[in-house]
Amino acid sequence: MTVTTPDRATLAPPKDETADLHRSPWRKVRDFIRRQPLGTVGLVIVIIMFLAGALSPWIAPFDPEENDFTAMMQAPGVLHWLGTDQLGRDIFSRLVYGARTAMLVGFSAAIVGGLIGLVLGVASAYFGGWFDLVFQRVLDVLMAFPLIILALAVVAVFGTGVFNVIVAITIPLIPRCARVVRASALAVREIPYVDAARALGFSHARIVLRHMVPNVVAPFLILLSAFVGQAILAEASLSYLGLGVQEPVPAWGLMLQGGAEEYATTAPWIAVFPGLAIVMAVLGISLFGDALRDAIDPKLRDR
Amino acid sequence: MKPKTGLWAAAGLAMMAMLAVAPASAQAPKRGGTLVYMIPADAPPSFDGHRETTFATVHATAPFYSVLIRVPPDNPASTTEFVCDLCVEMPKPTDGGKTYTFKIRTDVKFHDGSKLTAKDVGDSWNRIVFPPAGTTSARVSYYEMVEKIEVPDDETVVFRLKYGTTAFLPALADPFTYIYKKEILDKDPHWYEKNIMGSGPFKFASYDVGQSIKGVRNPDYYHKGQPYLDGFEAIFADKQSVRVEAVRGDRAAMEFRGLPPSARDQLVKEAGSAVVVQDSDWNCGNIVTFNHKRKPFDDVRVRRALQLAVDQWHGAPALSKIANVRTVGGIVFPGSPLAATKAELEQMAGYWPDIEKARAEARRLLKEAGQENLKFELTNRNVDQPYKFVGTWLIGEWKKIGVNVEQKVVPTGPWFQAMRGGTFDVVVDANCQSVVNPVLDTGKFLPKKVYPESYGDYDDPKSVELYEKMTHETDPKLQRAAMRAYEIHTLDTMAHGIVTPYWYRIIVARSYVKGWKISPSHYLNQDLANIWLDK
Fold this sequence. Notes:
The structure holds 2 protein chains of 2 kinds.
Chain A: H1 19-22, H2 25-35, H3 37-54, H4 56-59, H5 91-127, H6 129-143, H7 147-158, H8 162-189, H9 192-199, H10 204-212, H11 217-240, H12 252-260, H13 269-296, H14 298-301
Helix pairs in contact in A: 2-3, 3-5, 3-13, 5-6, 5-8, 5-11, 5-13, 6-8, 7-8, 8-11, 9-10, 11-12, 11-13, 12-13
Chain B: H1 2-26, E1 34-39, H2 55-61, E2 69-70, E3 83-84, E4 99-103, H3 118-129, E5 146-153, E6 156-161, H4 168-172, H5 182-187, H6 191-194, E7 202-208, E8 212-217, E9 231-236, H7 240-248, E10 254-255, H8 261-271, E11 275-290, H9 300-308, H10 312-319, E12 325-327, H11 342-345, H12 355-368, E13 375-381, H13 384-399, E14 404-410, H14 412-421, E15 426-432, H15 438-441, H16 461-472, H17 476-493, E16 497-510, E17 513-514, E18 532-533
Helix pairs in contact in B: 9-12, 16-17
């Protein structure tokens, strides 16, 4: 019987489980770009949006709220790159400032709604019993309403305006986050270190916030990225329906509403560019969210 | 030579008569057909004309009812001419202009077959002028001059006034003053809020809430030969795009409130000669009302500064391209003899021809009042045309003097609540009237205790004094001078409000709709009796 020794060259090197941790940030970014080209496109869109919103006073060539009756409904040109609306306001400037509104509403609603949902979801899983049962039924009721319908109801109660729109979109996001996070937290609850923490006499708040919440952050982050897109879309929808941000504040949905109905045929640029901005923003966040999930989820990471 | 001249003259007259008759006979009304039109609202709040003030009610229910007098259906734009509907002839006032005696037609039947008499007319008018406890009449203030209404017999109604005034007849021609059946009102004063039964050209057929209301021809209608239509269907649709599409696709023939210029242009471009356009100045406009109970709007310098910042003369022509507004005016409808001329307007704050000078003065006033960084909330109605356009325009104008304004847009119900409850800083209010009757229409600028629909919540005895002097004046020249004094006090001295450009009414109808003429009010001439379809 001959025993053959495998050729060292054909042998795969033993996998270094900690290799990922030791990679430099630039390497990680490069790997992300290579593995997730669509996600990278999404990330670039999100970054552009973020920069446009943050730097709008320096980027926008005109005051987005200034009426100019000498330039009403001008087609895209040298002076007004994307044209002007019915009140002579520069559409490019309004889009740039509109990014600020979209980011403000999108991130505020997603982060606040997500964080509240995170804590409530983990707490529900941790306490279990009657609390969990009742809380989940409450979530069932809230989740029975589509996001936009619930947001409409909240706006009807609190009124319009940026702050109220953030509140209106935040509330429907809470149960959606809590439900997903609870599922992950149920598994975490069974891990012995939670029992150990309890045995050591730690408070419920400490166990939930310091020991359980950090262990459900991965699904939470993925959820958060999806929420930003949903919140931007909800804000645009509310503004389009006249129930969100109000004139003359630049907001994409509001710009769409002002132009789509009356000037669709005579000055289509009034509606087309804000529409494109909404599509690009939601698409970008969606692509980035998908890529983030693939990158974070260990089951999908090596596909 | 003389007979020859007469012959030629006779021949000429005959020729002219033939020419005049020829087109008229070509346009002889045709009978039949159903008029389908749009009502730009979701539903009327109730069917009761006495109670309501909205076009949603009058567009839906006017065809079912008669009124005592009205503007001439063939010349509804007239601001001085009134004709009988239920009366036999227009009365000459007696007793120094203080008594009007109306003879009522004897050939009028309600739709249930019962006879309409002067008792029904007198009872309806008594309820309009002196509403019994538990009922609401929206126009009580219009009839402040009426002392009593008497019904001496079944064919006579007598109005006795406290003083003679030119405002009485126009007020009497208000299109909401439906004549109801006394017997029904005696049993239930609220019956007409939810039910319809009149004596007008059409009988009620059906109503689907939020959908449509239908009427069929009244064969017993007392204006012989009318109505020409077999019936009508009014479809409720508050979205403008829906209404424009309906007219474009000929699912509806028209709407009676008014479309903005962009919609007119779109329909004319796409439908060509299949549609016709009628337009008119509109006895309707947005006014900016300051809440005098809230600081700093109790300070006339702040109110005046906000007035001075608005460039009416350049704003109006630009806004007229995108919104249904057009004419710059003061408190009086610009088409009226009592209205201020441009030169007179230019003397008042808010109308200065040099806008830079006006804005410099506005900044000075704000500084003097300690309000250089003024911020406030502008409450507005969630109606695009023209409320939101006007609101956005005003915010832009105020920004030019460093004032930051946030617009709060609310549905109609909360908008009224905010005004009536005084829970606003500044509001885009409206002053829409029916018959052009400046003497009464300008009551909106009086203090709330005199005119409940005035929402500024201020007390101003001088304003009341000037107004009363104007209303009691019967000499046109002196009345015009008195109106100027009242207007200058209201807009310039006290700056109680800002009158934004008056609305402009644009009606686009399918060209087969004949017989209907536009008027300066979307409340007038809505009984449809003289409309016919050239199909």
